[in-house]
Amino acid sequence: MFFKLLAINIDGTLLRSNGSLPKQTREAINFVQNKEVVVTLVTSRNFPSAQKVARALQIPSLLVTHSGAFIADDIDEPYIDKRISPMRTFQVAQALDFYDCNVRVITERFTYANRKKLDVNLIAKAVFTKNDPIFYPVQFFDSISDVLRDEEISTPKIEVLFDNPLEKFEAINTLNKSFNDINIINVNNEKIEIVPAGVSKLWGLQQLGKKLGIPLSEMVVIGDGLDDKDMLENVGLGVAMWNSLPEVKKAADWVTRSNDENGVTYMVREHFRKQQRIQFVRKMTRS
After folding, report:
1. What fold, for 86-196?
2. What is the pLDDT of residues 57-113, one digit of tens each?
3. What share of residues in the chain are helix, strand, coil (percent, to 5)?
């Protein structure tokens, strides 16, 4: 199969566990770009944070961020900008006030977060603070719903972190029963993301494919999270990291090495070394 696009998740995939970006990964991205393959990032991160990684890797293409809700290569001119309405954002935050959880209302330019304290190690494990580059302001409040009552904000995504699985389950049930215009993404055992109805990483990748004229069957996706699972199942080649959960590995066509063992570099080198440049293949087809 001939592939025209490579989409890569960031946390747990591109980056090592300590948040660093291996030099070999930069070289692998350059290698596949020289094959005339489009490379993009598909991530739950906000746009400025994803763009920072893309610039380090010299990836100039549209980025699928906010779990598919915000797709852009320029923050001021997004190709896709799907949002939860101000009223619904307030109502969701108000409903979450009844649960012991951290809530973040995230936009492409700033984040509002509450000050509820959970297990510090859990918060670090969930990468709840790595999404914000220095220039991206995060403001903390005792109650986000109180702020949203006075200030109208439409958001691409709301992140919620729990340290009690039962409370997480109850909150999801409450939100599903109360609202039919949002989508709740189960990221891991502690974290959920709330995005506009119909939005997901897979949906965002489909929109990017329509823009570029590339079907899912001609895409490769590398990921590690539960929120990557749908993409791995629906693209031409789904690749899971060794550090993925078992159900994510099961959904993939290929399992590569872990993020701490240069899994992205290994997969790219192994697969794309066999693929000729697109222009070369076109010439051979016409001859």
Report:
1. 3.30.1240
2. 999 999 999 999 999 999 999 999 999 999 999 999 999 999 999 999 999 999 999
3. 40, 20, 35
